[in-house]
Amino acid sequence: MDTSRDSATDTGWRALAGHPVRLLASSWPWRSVAYLLTGWIGATVWVMSALGLILVPALGLAVLFTGIPLGALERWRLRLVSPHPVPSPHVRPARPGPLGWVGARIHETATWRELGYAMLFSLGLAWLDAAVGLLAGCVLFLVAFPALVHLVPAYQPEAIFGIVAARLPDAFLATAIGVLILPVVAYLITAYAAGRSVLTRVLLGRPDGEDPAMVELTRSRARIMDAMDAQRRRIERDLHDGAQQRLTGLIMTLGMARLELADAPPAGRGLVDAAYQQARTALAELRDLVHGIHPQVLTDRGLEPAVAELAERCPVPVDVDLDLPHRPAEPVEAAAWFIVSEALTNVARHSDARHARVTARRRGHLLVLEIHDDGRGGADPGGGTGLVGLADRVSVLGGRIALTSPAGGPTVLRVELPCG
Predict the structure, then answer these.
(1) pTM score above 0.90
(2) Under 8 Å CB-to-CB from 297, ≥6 apart: which residues?
(3) CA angle at residue 138 from 137 to 142, to 5 degrees?
């Protein structure tokens, strides 16, 4: 049997909508029969396997995963009636080994859909499929009835339909009946198989076109982003509690040395004064660096005070209007602060704006953040202004970002972050 794609039609539905002769001459009716008549094999194996596992107390829970191999078999069998493969909806386990596999599968919706399909299919659908598929056998029996009577003289069945006797030439009436109903049965079987393939694809495929590889990629990006945020906070604490404190101590020591060396030669006092000023400059730069990594005010007091502090430090006057009854989750809060920080940096460096405004509102399960400026506009995400990085950070959280920046301004950056 040829299971390759027909040149004229590439799905059963298109074959049904085409010319009747083309359908009868194609492989679709026979592929449909093969699809319907092979399902009971997998159904029988599943029922026997499930009953065997249930009867063994130590293996009873394993029955929860028996739908997975049957689902894989059903997706493979769909190739008989569909040229478009159905990829597995399962994702790769995050942890290796059997326990990692069990943990990943038991939390997947696909596992439970496959178990439900296995029960529905093995206890009902498979046998209905076989009954419909056997209609083709009945038609073939009618067509071949004269040959059967001639080749097996001892075969003397009752008269078919009460009118076709088991003797020649009367038996050719069965052939005529079979040829007449063959197109009807071919259409019926092909339509039923096409509908069954749609049901199987919906139940065992990826919901809403969801790609497990993309889901896993998104999750891995979120894990990487969380790890990076944790690493930044650790660096901020180390710098604040370590290097910053030591620099403060060094400045105090140099200040005391300046007092002690008041009567020293000018060259010596000059070197100490220069070291004192360099240490103060280094401390100021370190504090700016620590603040840019993860400000302590964000951790202690939340997004509103942290954004207000960013506005105070921005050389462009910024109005802040944040109305957040509750603090968002920590990743969302950190992302929102990072977006405002980067956006205000762009305003100060590239926009020539005289005024800017930051607003934030909670709209249902979304945190809606907007940054406006009255600059010259024309912001280009590909121009190295960090907008691509902002988009990546927003996408990790499943949010959306939109930039409106016509030439001549104004520029509006709108970000929606899920925080339900």
Answers:
(1) no
(2) 305, 306, 309
(3) 115
